[in-house]
Amino acid sequence: MSEFLRVERKGPVATLWIDRQPKMNTMTVAMRNEFPGIFAGLEADEGVRVVVVRGAGGKAFSAGGDVAEFLTLAPADLEQWGDTLTSAERFRKPVVAAIDGYTMGAGLELAVACDFRIATLRSEFAFPEVRLGMIPGSGGTQRALRLIGMTRAKLFMMTGQRISAERAEAWGLITQAVANDKLDEAVDALTGELAERAPLALRTLKTVLNRGADAPLETALELERKAYAWLRSTHDYEEGVKAFVEKRPPKYRGR
User: Fold this and answer.
1) Using CB atoms within 10 A of its CB, is residue 59 exposed (0-12), middle (13-18) or buried (19+)?
2) Which partner for 113 in 27, 89, 99, 254 could form a disulfide, CB atoms 3.0-4.6 Å apart?
3) Nearest partner of 117 among 55, 42, 29, judged by Cα
């Protein structure tokens, strides 16, 4: 792991820190290339139930990519680099982006690849790429479009404007906007709740939601039915039902 990315563990919650504070946590190509391996390691760790992605320093989640590197890359390199940030979406456990400060360009693309986005009110969001003669290239156009709709997506991306956390919440770009001093509390509350849920059910639900969103309705419903039926064969399904009937807390094992 590079000097700019680190993972901390606290019980079932792992926090992936982006820590390049002198550069507003902008991400180099080398940093991007580390995300698949980091998420693969967290996937394999059965003790990890939830992952939080945060930017260090309180000024930026990530202000984007390291623009100084852009002209050193060939078109073939650029075609592939966006896939590294998709690691958060491919990851089968819940991922929460804890946002405090500027979240721009590739930083916002990473955030929208996460399952939840909780942001302080002082945070600001933008896809400024059009101002540099380019477009978002790491999933931003398509994920943001699906979150906020075509009308807002065109206004947001084709002008490169910045929006506040309040507007981002109203548009559906983020899950929740909280007071500047309440971010830790809100993230802990959400991750604590997620960590208590059955891991297999969460993993299956994430897949059904992500895969079903753009599928024809009948196909998505078939996916849901088959996923539900498969869960019936697991320990966690049986444990959840028994715990409910016996009026006791469930003990999920991810099996």
Assistant:
1) middle
2) 89
3) 55
Residue range(s) defining the domain that contains residue 211: 198-245
Q: Are 163 and 156 in contact (CB under 8 A)?
A: yes
> Active-site residue numbers?
109, 129
CATH of residue 46's domain is 3.90.226.10
Amino acid at 48: V
CA distances from 243 to 3, 33, 192, 251 (A): 45, 43, 19, 8
Query: How many structural domains is the chain composed of?
Result: 2
Instruction: Report how far residue 204's alpha carbon sits from residue 225's, in angstroms, rounded to the nearest whole number.
Output: 11
The rounded Cα 131 to chain-centroid distance in angstroms is 25
- How far is it, in rounded angstroms, from Cα 240 to Cα 206? 19
- Please indicate, yes or no, whether residues 61 and 169 belong to a single structural domain of this protein: yes
Supply the CATH number for residue 230's domain: 1.10.12.10
Residue 46: CB atoms within 10 A of its CB come to: 11
Which amino acid is located at 120 in the chain? Answer: T
**Token reading at 12:** 């079932």
Residues 207-255: pLDDT tens digits? 999 999 999 999 999 999 999 999 999 999 999 999 999 999 999 988 8
**CA dihedral of residues 21, 22, 24, 29 (deg, nearest 10):** -90
3-state secondary structure of 124: strand
Is pLDDT of 77 > 80? no
Do 58 and 81 belong to one domain?
yes
Task: Work out the angle at residue 95's Cα, subtended by the Cα atoms of residues 46 and 3, and round it to the nearest 5 degrees.
Answer: 85
Say if residues 141 and 121 touch (Cβ distance below 8 Å). no
User: Is 255 contained in some domain?
Assistant: no
